[in-house]
Task: structure prediction
Amino acid sequence: MQVLVCLLERAGRPVTRDELIKEVWRGGQVSDNAINRIVAQLRNALGDDARTQQVIQTVPKVGYLLIAEVEPLESQPVTLPVATLLPEPHHVKAPEAAIEAEGSKQLNSPNTSDNKPVTGQSKHSYLVLAAYAMAGVLLSLLAFVVWDSVSQSREAKSEPVQDSIASLLPLTSLEGQEVDPVLSPDGNKLAFAFRDLSASEWRILVQDLTTGQVSLADNAPTANNQRHPAWSDDGGHLAYLNFDGKGRCELVLLDLLTRHAKVVSECDKATQSSALAIRGQELYFVDSDGVGDFKKIYQVNLNTLKKEQLSRPHSIGRGDYGLSLSPDKSQMAVLRNLSWFDTQLMVFNFSTGEWRQVLKVGYPLKSVAWSQDGKGLIYRAEEGQLHRYDLDTGERVRLTKILQEINSPRSNSKGQTAAVVGELMEEELWHWSVPGNTKPEPWVSSSRRDYRGAMSPDGALTAFVSNRTGLPQIWLRRINGEEIKLTHFDRFSFIDELTFSPNGKLLAGTINGAAFTLELAKSEIHFIPGRTSVRNISFGMSADELVMFSSEAGKRQIQLVDMNTGKMLNLLAENGFSGKFDRVSGEFYYSKMNSSGIWKLTQGVETQVTDKVTPLFSGGWHVADGRIWYLKSEEGLTKLIELDVNHARENAHPIPIANVSMNTLSMTNNNQVLLSVLANANTDIFIVK
Result:
């Protein structure tokens, strides 16, 4: 938005890259690729492109020129045309963990609507913007009027969270991924972890916000993979986690003046803490004794190196994994994992030693920050935006309202909050015809993630999950390219394992671990009675039978279940994990919990088909007509393997694209293939003001 405002204010004359950097990034270090990417996004939003250049023109070796006619409007609101709403579908709420807050009632985030953003007028139209845009209103205002159109849904059933929208000012724009942001105590420097899009390891960088200069915090040969920086009270030291590449995790304290780094504690290599924090001579961090152990908060004295546990005992979930000190450092906010979906926000008082349970949310958080007055917590809400929770009143307000996701808010001792804009991974769905010499082509993509794809047996429909309108929803793509949103959840829902019935009229999967079917003609969801903790869903030989993995009562089984009653019709495999029927032969194939390979069950007799692949998830393999299809990666090349069970032959089909996910494979009756393609995405750090 700031780039567009800069071009608007200089409409009719070229704007150099140096001017853009000086005004938008305040002289910071910005790559040419980053500027090119932003201009491409602007052109796309305005109905322009690099070939025709009828709105933004590239002036070689100079910069960019806004050539559209600009008409400033005096104190007139902008009204965007609204797309016609689709008929309102019947829908039910997904199973969820209740959101609880001390002294407050439950509040729901507003639903998203079926309205699609209007992409821009004709390329020959006037570019009309309101006076507030000309005055330089930033990212959180004009560019995201679209968000209002998708958040003020007519289907919202509860009072929406109050808005108190803050400005977002960019701090970084490197070509890569910037995460774990934390401002220095005086607010003049920013420490963060960075990696190039093609790299696997992270390095801690420090950016001087007055000059824009970016430098490595530690360039020693022993600095390998660094995360989660934290500033000392005087701003003279940085603490961070260093994974040394030898299976060892170290907690390092770096003197920024002498560049001397010392290890103050060892940590488990499985530790993934969302933050470190320094309070005087005490350093607080998360550690565990292994992958299966509870994560606990420890404090280590930087002088004596004495390590003590701070977390109170816990018996559920995975323990504590995030922490943040209040501006006056009298309290510490802590994130506690209660289950796969639930996060408890707690506050620890250093003077009294008391723990207070503040807020429980039904989705995973990455970090938490404090408001400037120390009376509120800032966290990522369900729709991917920042909310502020008042510790005294329990009131929640929304601080950001943009089309991108915002994560990892962290605050310093002045209560200044920095956060990450964007998601680490891009994901889209591609279509491929096999066998043959065709190349895969993009099938479903948007500005957010499109994933968990499944094709109907006849190839006419593609179901997928997308967070393009905020919360994850189930969408349907028709063969003509039309895309329809099928669900309207107003809570975060973990949607997994979508699969079509043999006749293509039903969709099945899990939502927050509960098995469901969705009747496509009515957009009506039916949850399978009593099946609230299952996975690896697929259809049986008929459209009213479901195959699912169940671990109830300590028994790990693959069961055939009546989808109407939830009752088990048949025990398919003891200790099985992922199973599928071959609907031509009627044979059942499955993987086991503690054994490699794929097994076959024929008239009660179990035999091993292959030991070369062990399917873990139902969405990652396909069975049809005596053939098992699965994905295999070798030396950077992904292949679709076709295993002829009857003749014990394999045929490998090389996939001529990179970054194919191993977890998504859906096929039609005539071998049309749906693949998921992943890629690292750019993220940037902003300050919330």
